[in-house]
Hints:
Distance between the termini: 71 Å
Number of helices: 16
Shape: globular
CATH class of the largest domain: Alpha Beta
Strand content: 15-25%
Number of domains: 2
CATH architecture of the largest domain: 3-Layer(aba) Sandwich
Radius of gyration: 23 Å
CATH topology of the largest domain: Aldehyde Dehydrogenase, Chain A, domain 1
CATH superfamily of the largest domain: Aldehyde Dehydrogenase, Chain A, domain 1
Structural class: alpha/beta
Helix content: 25-40%
Amino acid sequence: xxxxxxxxxxxxxxxxxxxxxxxxxxxxxxxxxxxxxxxxxxxxxxxxxxxxxxxxxxxxxxxxxxxxxxxxxxxxxxxxxxxxxxxxxxxxxxxxxxxxxxxxxxxxxxxxxxxxxxxxxxxxxxxxxxxxxxxxxxxxxxxxxxxxxxxxxxxxxxxxxxxxxxxxxxxxxxxxxxxxxxxxxxxxxxxxxxxxxxxxxxxxxxxxxxxxxxxxxxxxxxxxxxxxxxxxxxxxxxxxxxxxxxxxxxxxxxxxxxxxxxxxxxxxxxxxxxxxxxxxxxxxxxxxxxxxxxxxxxxxxxxxxxxxxxxxxxxxxxxxxxxxxxxxxxxxxxxxxxxxxxxxxxxxxxxxxxxxxxxxxxxxxxxxxxxxxxxxxxxxxxxxxxxxxxxxxxxxxxxxxxxxxxxxxxxxxxxxxxxxxxxxxxxxxxxxxxxxxxxxxxxxxxxxxxxxxxxxxxxxxxxxxxxxxxxxxxxxxxxxxxxxxxxxxxxxxx
Length: 494
C-alpha cells in the first residue's frame, strides 16, 4: 500500500498509524523522522515529528479529560483497563512482530513474556486500585482517614529496550489512579505505542485520557516534562537525561519518578552451585545486554574462580546471534547505529586501558555485512579494575567484566563500589550468608540464586544514580496520587 509520509506504515504485515494520538484524534506534524530497524538497517516508517505545539495540544487534551476521568469510580476505570488488556491479548502477535522489527529484541521473548506482561500491567493495577485502603485511626478522639486522590496530567517518557512493556508499567497505574497521560515513546522504537493508542480507543478509554506524542527528546520530550500543567513526570533512561528532566520538573515543583542505569554485580561464592551460577551469568547477555538490571560485573570468589571462568566462557561461546525473528537466535542486534557505535567505543577504550578480551571484543562483522544490521558479539573482559571506565560506566550492551575476590567482606565491598544501585545478584549455598550479604548490598532489588523474578506488587527502583522513588503495588499509587489524610472531629455534627 502507498501512504503519505508521517501518516502510516506497514510493518511486519501490520498497518501502523505513524501520526500522534491527541484528544482521541490522529494528528500529523509537518515534519517526520525515520524509524530504522536494527535487524537490517532499513527505514521501516516515517513518523510524525512532534514538538511544542503537539505537546501543548496533548497536555491540554489530558487536562480537559482529567475532570471526568478522575471522578470516574475506580471500579469503572478498572473495567476499561481490563478491556485494554483484552485488546492487547487479542493483538499480541501483531504487537510482538512490530516491536521485534522496530527494536530488534527477540520475537520469541515478545510472544512469551514481554507482550503478556503488557496486558498484565493493565490488569494488575486495575485490580490493585480497588484494594487501596488504610485503616482509620484515632488521634485524641479524632478520626483520621487516608485516601489516594488522582494527581493530574502525567508525562511518561520511556526507553527503547522494551518500549511497550516499560511504558505500560507506568501508564497502567497512572490511569488506574485516575490520572490522564501524555506518553512520549522512544524515537528509536515508537511504533507499538501507536498501536496501544488504537487498542485503548477501541476498549472505550475516553478521548484525551491517553495521548501519544512522537518525536525527538529535545523537541518533544523536553517541552513535555517542563510543561506547567503536568503534575507527574516518569522517566526511564540515562542519568544525564534525568538531570535535565529533573531541572525542568523542579521549576514547576512536579514530582518525578526516575528508573535509570545500572552497573549491577553478580556475586558467586565458593559454596555456590556452579551450574546455576554459570547459567545466571550467561543470562546477562539477554537482549544483547540492553537490560538496565543486567548483572554486568561478574565477581567470583577465588576458590571457584578458575572453574567458573572455564565453564562460563564455554557456555557463552555457544550463544547464537542472529535475526531476532528466528527461533534459534539467542540474541539479536543493538537497537541503532548510534548505540552500536557507543558500545564499540566502550570496548575500544577498554582495550586501550589494558583490559583483556577473553570473549568477543567487537562487531559481528560477518552478520552485519550479510544483513545490514547492528550486531555486536558477546564480549567479556578480564584484568579490569575500578580505575577503568569499563567497570564504572553503564555500557548497555553485551559486555561483561570478570573479577575475583577473596573474602565475603571483599565481595560485598566490590559489589557496592559503584555509583549505581539498581540490582544485585548473588549465588551461594549458605542460607545465613545469603541473608547476611543481601542485607548489606546497596541495591533496589537483590536476587539470591535467581535472576529477573519480578512481581508487580513489589517495590521497584534504584539506589544512588540508579533512580529516584519506588513503583509497584501501593508504591505506584503513592506516586501517581496525592495521598490525603482527612481528620474528623468527634463533635459538631447536627
